[in-house]
Every structure is written in C-alpha cells, then in structure tokens.
Amino acid sequence: MKFNAKQFIIGAVAGAVFAAVPSAAQATGGIPSARYSAADVAGGHAKAPLTPGEIEKKCAPAVFHIEMCDRNGYAFAAGSGSFISKSGLAVTCLHAVEGAYIERVMTSDGKWYGVKGVYGVDKEHDLALIQVDGGGIDFPYLETGDSEGLPAGRTVYTIGYPDGAYSFSAGVITGVTDGGFIQSTATVGQGSSGGALVNEYGELIGVTPIKHAEGSLARPISLIEALGRGKLLTFAELMRSIRSPRYADYFTAPDFGKIMGLPSKKEGTYEGYAETYFWHYALSGRNGADGYWQAAGGYIDALSEQGFRLVSESMNTKFYRNSDGLYVGLCNQAHSDDLNSDTTIFTSKDEKFAADYVKTYGVPSGEGGDYTANTSYYGNYTAVPDFGKVMAIELVDRGYWTDYDETYFWHYSLPDWENLDAYWTAADKYFEILLQRGFALADENGRAKFYKNKDGVFVGIWHEILGGDSNTTIMASKDKDFADYYLLYTAMPDFGKVMGVNLFGTMGFSAGTHARLYLLPDCRSVGRFWDAAGKYLAALDSYGYTPVGENKTKKFYKNSQGIYAGVCYDPDEGFNRNATIIFTKDGDFVANSLKTE
Prior knowledge:
13 helices; 35% strand
C-alpha cells in the first residue's frame, strides 16, 4: 500500500503486532459464521499441480488493485485484494481500507468498481473482508486452500499491484515465523498489501501485507474463517468502530505512527487546553528542519488528502485544520545531545492552543529553561545561544535562507533600541555569551556583525529600523559566502522597504557581486525612474555613501568600508522589472558597468 503523492509507503512493518479488537460484525451485533458456505467460498484440489502459466491465467483475474480515497474521491493510498466469491466478497489488509471515506477497485481487465463497505475486520492480523459492488455481475474468484502445516520448499506464487502495476512472482515456502506469518521467497513490491499468496494448485493460502529482505510474509487465509458476516459497515462507520485509543477522540486525524512506521514514545493530554492531545515519536537521524519536513512529507500528504489545510507555520512547526475545526500540528524538536530530530503530533479543537503553540514556535510553556540550553528555536545549531531568551524578547519570525546551504534566521522586535549605538550596547550581553561559547568576531559593518567558531559556524547580528521600531535579525550559517553576502547587503538601505515595493528576484554577477531586482510602477522612462529613486539615493546618503560615478541609467555610490552600491534603471518589459540594486566590493566591476548604458 502506498501514498501516491510522494511515493510514500504505508504498510505493516515486519514483526509489528496489532492490538486485537472485536470484528466489525461483533461490534455491531452481527453473528460471525464459523465458515463460509459453499456458495461463497469454493474448496477442493486440482488433481495435479499447475504450471506457472496456468496459475497466472487462473488466478490473476481474481486479484485487483484497490485505492483509498478521501471524501472528495481523491485517491491518497493504494493496495491490492482478492475476490473469494463471485458475488464480490473480497479479502485485503485492514490498513488498505482503514482511514478511507471511499474505496474503489480496478480489476485485471482495467474496469473500476466501487466498494460498498466492510463486513469484518481482524485488527490483530491486519485483515478485512470487503464487498465490491459489481452491479450483479459474477467476479472471477480464488478458491481457498489449506494454509496450515505448510512444508518448507513448497511452491507458491504472489500476485498483486505494487505501484498500481500488476506483478506475478514465484518462490518457495521457507517457514512460518513466530508471529504466524507464512514466509516465502516469492517477492512482493510496495503497494502489494492485501495481495494473494497462492499454492501450486492455484488456491489462495495467504494475504501478503509485508515484504522483507528474503521475499514476503503472508497471513494464513484460515484466519478469515473467524471474521463475521454481520452488518455491512460504511467506511466512516469502520473508522469509528476500530479506531485505536491513540487518536481516538479525533479519528479523522491520520495516525502518524502508522504512516511513518514508528511507535509512540509518549502521549497524553495537553494541560490548559480543552480536547488537546499529543503523541511524541523519535525520528532518528532526521536532524535539521529541511530533513525533518522531507521525512514528514508522507504524513503531510495524508493530511492534505483527508481535507486538512495549512493554517499557520514556523520553521519547525506547522498546523493544519479541516472543515470540522480540527487542528493537527507537527512540531520538529531537535535535541542537543544527539542532534536527532523528534516529532510531536497534536490534535485539538481548541483554536487558542494552535495560536499559542505557533507563537512559541515549538517550545511549550513551562519548558523554557535558561537561555544557555539550546531549544528547538536554534535546533540546527546547538552551539548558538538563543537571542530571545538572552535578551528576554519575543521572536517575530523565522525561516531559512534558500540561496545558501544550512542558513537560518530569527527575527526579533526591539522597540527601545532605535539608536544604533544603543543597540550595540544592549546586544553586548549576547556577544559575551557568543565569546563564552567559543565564537570570535569575524567581520562587521555599521549594522551587522558576524562571529565564527572553530566548527565554521557563523552567527550574524543585523540591526534595522522598521516603521520607527528597532529590529534585529540573528543568522546562523556554515556558508562563508552567505556571511560575505550579508555584510555587503546589510551595509546598504533596503530598496524595497524605502520605496514600498516588493522584491522581484535576485542575481549574481562576478564573485562577491550581487543584485536585487524590483518593479517600480509608472517608471517607464529614465526621467521618471530617477525622480522616484531620489528617495533611495537620499537613504544611501544617510548611510554614509558618496557618489563615485554615473551614466544615463546607472549611479554608483561607495561607503568608507569600500562597499559599492549601484542603482540601475532596467526597463526590460519581458522581465517586468525596472530597478536593479547592486552591492559589491569589486571596483573593476563598477568601472566596467559604468561603461555600458
């Protein structure tokens, strides 16, 4: 069984143990039958073993591809199944139906049929009986054989639909595991969950939920005899009747542990918020925000397919919400002791909880500790002290710098530090802790300072004025090019903020020379452009830049640190931009640029 969106596999893990629950028929008052009637399941042996070609011809039409769909009919996962009666009764894995709102199957002739519902389930053994709606037609079906006491070396075949494509494989039985699985060398692919294991007579003897290194594992078909034929449950009823204690209050939330194949380390309620629960899992080796979100992609796909939409996020936290008002949150939590990234999943109908949790960016109240201990704020760089805790101020925004590897930022508001000297005086407290952690000043300009430690980690501090308030941005990076770039960039006023326009794109020229591109409406002539850009030229003057050269479409300025700032008119209609801001320390680039209009 597999997730279509990112080829993410859902399936039972080898050796997993499912908690036993009553069958759906028992849960709804149905009376389980001891054995299916001859009209439902045929028995008996062929007189002689069949050839592989005969097996495939006889059995393949009775095995189908099955898709799990959300309430809108969008398929989000897939598996396999087998008909065991001409009326459309079929067997598959429970995890190939659990969590779906709609099920449909495609038979070997390419035709699609709906699934009416589920008759019985065996959660302990991951089995389910479903009823396919054939509209009165007779389906080809598999006879059931003896699945007990199977000798090693007996020929068997697997049939299924990994990745939605038909697969047939031959092998031999190698034994029966302690968990009761039939083990064989016949292979199954991901997406074959619920497929058929048949013997040399073409009889169904097992259901294949698992693959392993040597071949496949299958549940004995004899287990279906204990499943009931009571009331036919819809898939919504199925979810309610068999949901586990975990996620029990919100069965519409996909189970992270099942999808990721991970046991929960800890779970419980979240004090102070109504109807709010958490489950904590270990994601060993998934350190780093990028690695975490990539690993969690399958679960995010499951949320999307079940109608959840992203409503808020930070670098390490995302909250999703469905139309019923249910929030599901994912929090990436890196630990400084081993750098392994764990995850905590939340379900809640408390809107305040979601808002409060995103505001704290993955650090629940009461778990702060002192600022010298790293938190998930700075999980990618455990040696970097937390500026917010050191300075006792709140984080405003955070993220990563997409153009540079392993580069992250944290933005804070400092309303009382408008004056640059006052800012650096206040920030000395943070600098002292950086020095204590083995960082040394690497480079600086008037508004930014970069420190570096022996591991090559750069920590940058940048002061800026936004709307009359003093702000600061903390950056952590292992990319020296980023540090060089930022020292150039922060030495200049921000054109977009000064002019009130959005950044259109960026561009690199020679080494150490960068450009930022903007659209200035109503500046279709060079005269209008310079009239509008006069506001930015005045800002350059206030930053200590003086003119060094110009032509009709370019003006370059330079500050006392040798940083050039260029303002260029570019009326390129195709790219919809007409302002290019350049920053560099390369005097030759400036001289050559001024030679061209």
